[in-house]
Specification:
Blueprint: E1 4-5, H1 18-28, H2 36-63, H3 71-77, H4 82-105, E2 117-118, H5 124-131, H6 133-143, H7 148-152, H8 157-170, H9 175-186, H10 196-205, H11 214-241, H12 254-267
Antiparallel strand pairs: 1-2
Subcellular location: Nucleus
Protein name: Transcription initiation protein SPT3 homolog
Organism: Nezara viridula (Southern green stink bug)
């Protein structure tokens, strides 16, 4: 049985993650005060990307004979991008470790989507997911020919580049500045400080109408931030290509984000297009996390 939102109704107040996205952008490589206009545009793109992802995942679920999207459908869509898949599996493994620690300490430190959703009954998928998110995913990946050893040996240049960028950025920071930078590095779409219901309401507001189980919601939280990270990565690459380099760091601008979208629309097609049916015309744009 699927999970449904505890309220059962959409919020009348518009939900926005603009402030959180500004923090994320700083932690991912933008200047210390990202532009609100840029963050608002990035928020729109992230919602659009998640909506496209769920359209494709829903098609995979239908092919499996399932009515509701599961983690398997998103993992299948990511199978050609092993570095991105490796980052997701690592993230879920960390969540497993946190859950074990929380249980041992008998206190709730990490966000738990079950607290924000009402269960009619608990399916076996949910029980297995609670036991080990990473194990659940690795078990499915084996069925499509991807072993954990394959992921371990995968070189992740994107992650290495982000780590080097963060280290260089923090090199000369004062202790106070580093605390702010660390806070920005930890910012996400759902945390102990941000109610998970806000994220679910935000997705509904963005037109994502599929039923979301806890496993899928947790993966979407990760992919939402990963989309922000990919956008920042591409914006910084565009700057490196510029004939004249900036002498002083300046915030990423909406025009740079628009250039990213233009390039992706021009160069990319729907990753799963060969098997898709009756998708809207707007679904032929690249999904950054796939």
């Amino acid at each position: 049985m699927a999970f449904v939102n505890s309220s059962g109704e959409s919020s009348e107040t518009r939900v926005s993650f603009m402030k959180e996205i500004q923090l994320m952008m700083y932690g991912l490589g933008d200047c210390s005060k990202p532009l609100e206009t840029t963050a608002t545009l990035v928020e729109t793109i992230v919602l659009d990307q998640l909506k496209r992802l769920m359209i494709q995942a829903e098609e995979i679920a239908e092919m499996r004979g399932e009515e509701i999207v599961g983690p398997e459908d998103i993992l299948f869509l990511m199978k050609r991008n092993e570095p991105a898949l490796k980052r997701l599996i690592t993230y879920l493994g960390i969540k497993d470790e946190k859950a074990i620690l929380n249980k041992a300490l008998q206190e709730l430190v990490d966000i738990d989507f079950e607290d924000q959703m009402m269960m009619e009954d608990e399916p076996s998928q949910q029980i297995q997911w609670k036991k080990t998110r990473k194990g659940y995913c690795l078990e499915f990946l084996k069925t499509i020919g991807i072993e954990e050893a394959d992921l371990d040996m995968t070189e992740d240049i994107v992650k290495e580049t982000r780590q080097i960028r963060a280290n260089n950025k923090s090199m000369d920071m004062s202790s106070t500045a580093y605390q702010e930078f660390h806070k920005a590095r930890c910012a996400s779409f759902s945390s102990a400080q941000i109610c998970s219901q806000k994220f679910l309401d935000w997705l509904r507001q963005g037109g994502i109408e599929q039923t979301l189980t806890t496993p899928v919601a947790e993966i979407l939280v990760y992919l939402a931030k990963e989309t922000v990270a990919n956008i920042v990565d591409m914006a910084l690459i565009i700057r490196e290509e510029a004939p004249f380099q900036m002498t002083e760091p300046s915030p990423i601008t909406p025009s740079e984000i628009q250039e990213i979208v233009r390039r992706c629309m021009y160069q990319q097609t729907l990753p799963f297009a060969g098997f898709s049916r009756d998708l809207p015309r707007t679904a032929d744009k690249k999904i950054f996390t796939l």
